[in-house]
Amino acid sequence: MANKLQELLDKKPFLLADGAVGTNLFAAGLQSGDAPELWNIDAPEKIHALHRGFVDAGSDIILTNSFGGTTHRLKLHNAQSRVLELNIAAAKIARAEADRVARPVIVAGSMGPTGELMVPLGELTPEDAVAAFKEQAEALVEGGVDVLWIETLSATEEMETAVTAAASTGLPVVCTMSFDTNRRTMMGIKPGDYTKFCQELPSKPMGWGANCGVGAGEMLETLIGLKSTAQETDIIVSKANCGIPEFKDGALTFSGTLDVMADYARLAADAGARIIGGCCGTSHAHLKAMSDALDGYTPNPSLDIAKIEARFGPVWTIELPAEAGHGAKAESGGRRTSRRRRK
Fold this sequence. Notes:
The protein is an alpha/beta fold. It has helices spanning 4-11, 22-27, 39-42, 44-57, 71-74, 83-98, 126-143, 156-167, 191-200, 216-228, 258-270, 284-294, 305-312, 322-325, and strands at residues 15-16, 61-63, 106-111, 147-153, 173-177, 207-212, 235-240, 245-248, 251-254, 273-278, 318-319, 329-330. Helix 7 (126-143) links the parallel strand 3 and strand 4. Helix 6 (83-98) packs across helix 7. The model is unreliable at 318-343 (pLDDT under 50).
């Protein structure tokens, strides 16, 4: 089976992935609480437009609209019996947009978390998790994806089941976690430990890294952690949020400008990422700015925290509750509760 992703990596120093799915679909009319995957059948023209915009902006990789496509996530919308239908449709829509252009564009089958806790913290057994991920993976393969892309997980136990299921199809696997809790995932995994975990999996993924999280600065620090235990040939992935997510007037907004995302893309290359894209809040325009920034760019592999903070301000800085620290700012090992504004 041809490995189209490896073929493209062999030709280019780094690849540009796509941007946000969910936040862009909200802008297109998706309502909070609705399942984006249902639009693969109910509003396919909007999914076509989403992918088309990223391809036209220069993306080398586009992710299918199937993040919540397992039976566990779809049952929240009474659609648990539609796993095959929705995932096949997601893959076919992305495939059509990728094949519309003459240059090679990789279609990656997006697989998000089940939303369930694994035993002993919850009731989801490894066997059930593998079965759910395998059902989704096989549907995405039937729809025509080139690679299976597991994203935004926080627990290594669930990640191992997802990788096992995806690898059983014979397609290459890429997997990313969300490091959103002061240098860790929600379940406490550190970036350097995640690289070691991926290196030691029985079915070693082709690439791994981080997506979502907090903002560009935090993502870049996460990349340094991922690379700290990486081997020279490891393929590191970076898909950062478009700046810092904030609630304004009851809506979630992102602070990233075109210049912010262009600078992030170049610094991600400096940090050693081979696949660079955006996550929440990243629009077609942001992707075009990133594409232009990476065009002909020669990485400077000397990125450190000082350079990151010189561009994006202090990373992982929180404010203690007034009663605990009289409003003093401090670093903390706990979950980030609030973040001071960048200057």
